[in-house]
Design brief:
Length: 191
């Protein structure tokens, strides 16, 4: 698979999310930095984990993965300490996604697995669907298409069961993966 134009050091990014409103995203990043600093000042560990995860997710969406990883590494011990709080699952998903887009996909898969373990252990089903979507994208990028399909299909089933409107996204990912598989078989290679 060819790298994206202008990003020769990175592998293909499969169906990566892009903010519809980049200026709105920048405003949200600023607001989330303030919220994180307030949590630091209040020494509220759960809030720190939540705001670090939210900020890092936004930074990754803004294609600032190095900065996202820096934020997350500062608060990684708290994510371990507060692992019974749903924000810790979001934290690990954000951590894995930042690693993924820094082309550290093996580390990302380990972090995704940890996030999934937390979500499943605590019954955070909606979060599980998000993790599965992100893990599925990562698996596509490493050529593990059947594993990716299983992730997308499980995420879609969860979303349908929850009547989550994001089921349209998971259905689109399943279709995009099928198109990618068809394209690969038409060229005579399994990708």
């Amino acid at each position: 698979m060819a790298p994206l134009p202008g990003r020769a050091e990175k592998l293909m990014e499969f169906e990566r999310f892009t903010a519809a409103d980049p200026q709105g995203l920048e405003r949200a990043i600023v607001a989330q930095r303030v919220a994180l600093q307030s949590a630091v000042a209040a020494t509220d560990g759960s809030a720190l984990v939540e705001h670090a995860a939210d900020l890092a997710s936004m930074l990754t969406t803004a294609r600032r993965e190095e900065e996202a990883l820096h934020v997350l590494l500062q608060h990684l011990p708290l994510a371990h300490t507060h692992s019974a709080v749903e924000a810790a699952g979001w934290f690990w998903n954000a951590y894995a996604t930042a690693l993924q887009y820094l082309s550290r996909r093996e580390e990302a898969q380990t972090a995704f697995d940890h996030a999934l373990q937390l979500a499943r252990a605590h019954g955070w089903t909606r979060l599980e669907s998000f993790i599965l979507v992100h893990l599925g994208r990562c698996l596509v990028e490493t050529g593990r298409l059947s594993d990716a399909r299983a992730c997308f299909e499980r995420a879609h089933a969860i979303r349908v069961g929850l009547a989550d409107p994001r089921q349209a996204t998971s259905a689109r990912l399943i279709d995009a993966l099928a198109a990618l598989e068809d394209k690969g078989t038409q060229r005579g290679s399994p990708l």
